[in-house]
Amino acid sequence: MTHIYWGDLHSHCSISYGQGTVEQALLRARQQLDFCSVTGHAFWPDMPTDRSRYGEIIDYHREGFARLAGNWEKLLAAQRDATVEGEFIAMPSYEWHSLRYGDHNLYARGPDLPLVDAVDLPDLRRLAAEQDALIIPHHIGYAAGYRGIDWSHFESSRSPFVEVYSLHGNSLSTSDPYPMLHDMGPRDSNSTAEAGWRAGHRFGVIASTDHHGGFPGSHGDGRLAAIADSLTRDSLWDAFQSRRVYAVTGDKIQLAFSVNDAPMGSDVQTSGNRHVRVAATGCAPLDQVEVFKNGASWRRLHPAWEADASSEEVALRVTWGWGQKTERVDWEAELHLSDGRIAHVETCFSGQSVVAPKGVGGHAQDEDEQDLPHEIIERGERTLAWRSVTSGNLSTRHPTHQSIIAYVRADQDARICLQANGNRYDYGIGELAGQSRVHYLRGWLSEAMCLGPASPLSERRAVGEFVDDEPVRPGDYYRVAATQRNGQCAWSSPIWID
After folding, report:
1. Is residue 321 part of a domain?
2. Is the same domain home to 224 and 368?
């Protein structure tokens, strides 16, 4: 029986250049992920040489690469020590930059990986084959020649999937949300995943944060799901190689997708009808689930709104933060349920949106930062308690508030009591159905708490089955996109037909 395991294969810290220690990064990863990789910036064989224009960039990267080389054994040891099969897996990786070929990360099953440079992408592919490693392109949507992907150089033999979503933006297609906003430039149609599939390449898709603040799995910055038999290095590696992976922006949207009972990532041999099955379960109300065929919208699903919400498990989201961006607020909060039980809790914790840190090795406050700035401290059938530290949003595009989702099984008249920093709020679950209640803790422009909405399963689940009886064209491919009404997304790896 397969399971969905959640990870982030691309995050950074001060082990090369970034913020936060590797120990902090792994501790934070264990809070909300099943597996991760803390990646070190390692090599850039075709780095610009014009010091008059790029001198600061050259020195910045060279210093970071030297720092990683000196810390490489420490990074391997930290990830080895953090791994407990069946509980949490940390895999070694390093980043190889290239203007010509685009940026790639090299991953090993672990726990060890030699730190070796390559002169070009074919050489990197050779190294990966010798080490039974994978090389995964990321932020592919930048223009070819400017650290985006050049599909003419791509081979799937060591690259079963690519990273299409991170803090850099979304490289899936030209029309998808979350365009590139980094100073490296806009999204180029010729570098998107859809362009690669149209060119005949076969690869799956993942998301990961590319976070540089020591916070793997930072909510909203990119996560991936691996569909595997068990939480072990070997089982995850098999899922990677079989392309049984998909991308989410943050919320852990569950996505099942098959063609003639073959799971996502498969090559299906058939000359007859294709039976396409899709099931999506969101963490908030679904907007739609869309099936694409050969890059074009083919079928759409919507949740079954007519179900009886009074008897369903509801997903209750609680969010806190806001206020002045220069003011730190410490939170102590408790949630109590009068009847029923809290079946499951999902944390949506995030770090500051750090994708291009200033200086190598983080900043002077690294040693003073809390290892776990947000933490669940008590969890029972009817009680949930947590602490957190927030400041106001950096801009309207850079949220810093935090949230949790409590999956509650209770009648609509059950009461939710929330206590936060000495304030008490009380609501019936029915009062929060599709609604939110906001409380400012100290008046206008102060920190705020948002309780709700509560979303029943009928609003969060969509299931469908379709038959494609059109003549088969070899190389046809299907994929699925699930979108929640709150903007959170999931994108499947394709299934190909031969």
Report:
1. yes
2. no
Show the tokens assigned to 343: 């079946």
Give the burial string for 51-62 (b: 16+ CB within 10 Å, else e): eeeeeeebebbe
Residue ranges making up the domain that contains 102: 3-250
CATH code, 168: 3.20.20.140
Angle 22-32/51-82 helices, nearest 10 degrees?
60
Go through the chain and tell me how many residues it has: 498
DSSP state of 261: T
pLDDT, tens digit only, all 498 positions of the chain: 899 999 999 999 999 999 999 999 999 999 999 999 999 999 999 999 999 999 999 999 999 999 999 999 999 999 999 999 999 999 999 999 999 999 999 999 999 999 999 999 999 999 999 999 999 999 999 999 999 999 999 999 999 999 999 999 999 999 999 999 889 999 999 999 999 999 999 999 999 999 999 999 999 999 999 999 999 999 999 999 999 999 999 999 999 999 999 999 999 999 999 999 999 999 999 999 999 999 999 999 999 765 555 558 999 999 999 999 999 999 999 999 999 999 999 999 999 876 666 655 444 334 346 899 999 999 999 999 999 999 998 888 788 999 999 999 999 999 999 999 999 999 999 999 999 999 999 999 999 999 999 999 999 999 999 999 999 999 999 999 999 999 999 999 999 999
Same domain, 115 and 241: yes
Same-domain pairing of 245 and 333: no
In DSSP notation, 265-306 reads T-EE--SS-EEEEEEEE-SS-EEEEEEEETTEEEEEE---TT
Of 201, 231, 250, the residue at which a domain comes to its end is 250
CA-CA distance, 115 to 110, in Å (whole number)?
13
- The string of DSSP codes covering 406-432 is EEEE--TT-EEEEEETTEEEEEEGGGG
Alpha-carbon span 94 to 195, nearest angstrom: 26
Listed in sequence order, the residues at least 6 apart from 168 whose beta carbon sits closer than 8 Å to its beta carbon are: 138, 139, 141, 180, 181, 182, 184, 210, 355
Give me the sheet containing 437-440, strands edge to edge.
341-348, 402-409, 314-322, 447-456, 437-440
- Residue 417 is assigned to a structural domain of this protein: yes
239 and 327 housed in the same domain: no
Place of tokens 């792994």: 26
Question: Does a structural domain hold residue 436?
Answer: yes
- Contact status, residue 106 vs residue 94, Cβ threshold 8 Å: yes
Residue whose C-alpha is closest to residue 30's, from 240, 231, 228: 231
> Is 174 contained in some domain?
yes
CA distance linking residue 131 with residue 465, whole number of Å: 41
Here the tokens at position 265 are 């990532």
Does one domain contain both 39 and 181?
yes
